[in-house]
Amino acid sequence: MIPNKIFAYLNSNFKTLLLLYFLVQLFILLFTSLNYTSDSLYYYQLAQGCISNHTFYPTHQNFYNDYLVAPAYINLLIVLLSIINSKLVIGFLNIILNFTQVCLVYKITENIFGKNSGKTAVIIYCFYLSTLGMILMNYTEMLFMVFVLMSIYFFLKKSNLMYVCSGMFAGAAVGVRPLGWVLVAAYLINYFIDFKNLNKNFGNYSLLITGAAIFILGFGLFTYSNSGRFIYTSTNAPINILIGANDDATGAYNDRVFEKGNAGYIENPERFTYDQKQNLWMHEAEIWIFEHPLKWLSLFPMKLVHMFAWDDFSVSKLLVGNDWNLYRIVKNIFSGKFSEIMPGEQPFVKFSYFIILIVHHLYYYSLITMLLTVIFIYFKEIIENPILRILILFSVMGIFIHLLTFGDARYKYPYIITAMIFISPIVNQIVNKKKIKSLTGEYGKNYV
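-> structure tokens emitted (448 positions)
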């Protein structure tokens, strides 16, 4: 982690740190070329296509895509790009989302553990390079996590209106990614776990579910008025499940299953709508899983490896402006293909990149290690605290959902953000050289 003296200095100059963090983001955005690839490019193209046709997403034309994706996020892009059609607008959106996210991390941590732990969570956040790198990309993760954290924040406020707002932001998270349903499920499980207060809490949770229903219904009717179909979230679950359930599955993204002669191949795919394709792919995945249950389960550890073993899904964009990552580099090293590692880059650039990448991973591994330690030692306190229980349920169930598909380093991003909340009181106590007696006790602030 960060040395104690530096940590203490940052803690006492908290507002200055936030200002510097904002300025660093602004500098990076203005002096870095925005070259989108993969999902970033696809989302951008979807938005631009709708702008060209003077419509929102999805349109009838999109029904012949392989799937519909993140309708709430794509429509937000359409609105922003319709005002100023520049990738810089997406970058500024990311800075706003990033700043909102760090403020929410602070407020939620402060509410559970106290102000000092809140500041500690922000310090941990600001040194996490993957979030910094994401401002150069066009991903759904930050908007999704802002909605999740907003939902948690309003839930903490404990008033009728706030419970409705909490539910609406949970519904908005569903509109960005189907994983938002995991947050809704976490709320419901939390309600039933508190068995003694079922009647007392019924009204609060009813308001929360009502809020989620209001957003989903309202947004679904909006897309219905535009496309004739009630669309409120992504529809790509079947294709992702098939990627993780076929003879060529490795636990990571692998599209060989869609090649001719394999289970996912569709001749003339442009003739079929997204739901027809998804039904076919889901059927093929179910057949394979039922025929190879043990092999499917044996892929779960590899999916975890691909999610958590490295953490540079955006760091390469931040440092060298391309899609290089630790996995590809290590793969080339073991294959003896040294000349193919960052070809065209000067030795100094390669060396600097490796050093920063190593430091970043040491930082990341320390976060993971501390999180696992906190959960192991203070598990009882965690499950007895309603908010921590919701966060841990959200994280555990979310990771399990990813195991049903395939592993990717980017997928763990929401759980790293929640991890910062969990470990902040322990880091705060270590830095201040205080004896760690309780996660939420003497130095914390219990939420009742």
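The mean pLDDT is 89.
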